[in-house]
Amino acid sequence: MPEFLKVKTADEVLNLIEDFAPLEEETVLLEAAAGRVLSRNVEASCHVPHFRRAVMDGYAVRARDTFGASESLPALLTVVGEVFMGQPAQHTLGPGQAIAVPTGGAMPEGADALVMVEYTQDVGDGTIEVTRPVAPGDNVLEPGDDIAEASLLFPAGWQLRAQDVGVLAAVGMRSVSVFRVPRVAVLSTGDEIVSPDAPEVPVGKIRDINTFVLAAQVREAGAVPGWTHVVPDDLDQLAAACRQALTDHEVVLLSGGSSVGARDYTVQVLERLNGAELLVHGVAIRPGKPTILARIGSRILWGLPGQPASAMIVFTAFVRPSLLRLQGISVDRSSRTRTSRAVLQRNLPSVHGRADYIRVKLSEEDGQVLAEPVFGSSAMISTLARADGYVIVPEHVEGYEAGTEVTVHLFGSISRPFLAGKEET
Amino acid sequence: MPEFLKVKTADEVLNLIEDFAPLEEETVLLEAAAGRVLSRNVEASCHVPHFRRAVMDGYAVRARDTFGASESLPALLTVVGEVFMGQPAQHTLGPGQAIAVPTGGAMPEGADALVMVEYTQDVGDGTIEVTRPVAPGDNVLEPGDDIAEASLLFPAGWQLRAQDVGVLAAVGMRSVSVFRVPRVAVLSTGDEIVSPDAPEVPVGKIRDINTFVLAAQVREAGAVPGWTHVVPDDLDQLAAACRQALTDHEVVLLSGGSSVGARDYTVQVLERLNGAELLVHGVAIRPGKPTILARIGSRILWGLPGQPASAMIVFTAFVRPSLLRLQGISVDRSSRTRTSRAVLQRNLPSVHGRADYIRVKLSEEDGQVLAEPVFGSSAMISTLARADGYVIVPEHVEGYEAGTEVTVHLFGSISRPFLAGKEET
User: Fold this and answer.
1) Of the candidates B90, B122, B141, which is a domain's last residue?
2) Across the interface, do A202 and B377 touch by the CB < 8 Å criterion?
3) Averaged over A109-133, what is the pLDDT?
4) Is there a single domain that holds both residue A213 and residue A256?
5) Partners of residue B423 in chain A, C-beta under 8 Å
6) Which residue would you say has higher pLDDT here, B257 or A47?
7) Residues of B with CB below 8 A from A385's CB?
8) Res. A418 pLDDT band, cuts 50 70 90
């Protein structure tokens, strides 16, 4: 049997995804950089601070002039000037002299330390008493003490947080090189699916749900949802839609039509696409067995189950890590984010030899997170809204007992989304 | 002493925020609805499904025709037709008859149950054997079984997740009423601050950091960063910039210039703004004491400390909950999201009588989350990038010992952002 026809485990699929190369790099302004992933190491182009800076309100002094100073035997210094915030020092400090400097102000030439204002007393006549000695360098930041020129600020592959953008601003960067984010087309197929813009829904048909849910999940994964479209179960139309989507999207999601059986259109569509390479045809998880992954040149096509709950699980388990991988984030890291530990409220039976992905609803009691399995057919939309994520019962485990602490893989990026339910009246 | 001059506790500030009314409502297309907060209860406008639907592949039958059926004594039924996916049934079922129906297909008139295909056998001549009885309603969804017309789908105040958008699509909604998101102006003041577009930075001055960090935090809070601007410490220019910002932003952030002292410009600016009402002038936390909150008509102005690390903490603790509150999310809920339990790696000393907000860096070891305090002056930008969030040592607690499990308030929306560090080389 050819390798691609073997049903793969979830780990095998994730290993394939890890081999995807990130998209090409682009330059973005700092205002748009938060959340993006660096495509290169970033080094500091200058020292921060770039001048000697006071870290407290006080007096710039020569440290040796304060040696031995105490409450009972203070050092007397002559105040010869003041440094103003945002301005260079106007005076050079000589022996026995002091210059007032505010927190963050520039230290004058000739000074090597700052005495905190708390340890001085103005005795009039332009003279201060210093009641504690300072050592050279005390309360002063030298150029580069905070960030040294040419030091590594962030390595390639680093996802920039708000504070990291502040660090880039501090060294004068106005733009930064990051990996592009994928544009994702979301196609939904099935003879029973009606476009959301259809005025009415005949008997036998249902409204499209997957393009909405999957597009929202695409956006949450930091990618850009592009064309969304409902396609009839017709090989010509499906192939034409996929070809069109592949022209200007790096990733195409096709939900429905991927179950092994009479309607296994996705694989037939792939056969019509030049250069399509089937990487995954079936995954040993439930739901999600009919999942398909293919490469078409540098582009990626996912075939997802048509049931909304199943499509959402497969997106969370595989598509999301792949979209993050294209942005430069490793599968290992993306798999470890977006989980919560929780205590099972009921037994979770499972079938040996297949990984079960069981939807759960989370709640909180006395600071403990609880997971309640969501029962009901995955064909029922209402079960979808009740679930916050899923628990994986691995293939070699025959289930978990109530009371077990398990890892819940969360559907949404809204942290601890189950709290949303607290305001229900 | 007037009430507004008293330094407030963090809880008092959060209570004030809780009283903010959400912004007005607006209608958004479903494509843009994820993450938004409903301004009204949403009820189902129709049944889902809106027709009787098979939940398995099988045969539509009259249940009574299968009563008593078994492997040894199967019921014999005549197949009189087939229902196709997405189409209404073409035949009405009579006694002794069966009609093939796929999963999700429309049930024909006259049938009251579905026999799974696994419990039937085609014996040729258009006849099937049924080897198990079914009860009326078995394997059939009645109209409204999933979602009943007029039932409450989500209450006002509910933040829509990806799957919730799918539920709205299922009942044919193309748009939904939500609270508007605030537009936020971010002004940075200080005689030492240089606009990011300045070609060079003279001695004594530093580059603006706060507009970048705060704008990124605004976006993470679901709001829209608008005008960002660096203003000199000049009362006329500050007042003019605030007036301009207030014309088309619901919220203005002004960082720097809010410490009690010679440069207490923010309060003087407020005195120049018509109808400004000072709600908070000082909060008993460190850092963040000089925090200011004011209302100007329906608009809000925050005065934040100038130190980037302090501004970021005050944003996370107070500004973020206020931006979420304007979107319709309660302070209680927003305060409980975005936290992580972690084990302290060092003693955290604290001063009695003041709440200390101490920055920490998170890491993970053997599945346990560890919090390491970040030391170093908050004037140092590099300490900002090292921190993932902060631990609060309440005013009546004199510190925590190493090994204590504490709650860490995370700066970022990227779940468990500390994992970002794992790829450092």
Assistant:
1) B141
2) no
3) 97
4) yes
5) 155, 157-158, 330, 333
6) A47
7) 153, 163-164, 166-167
8) very low
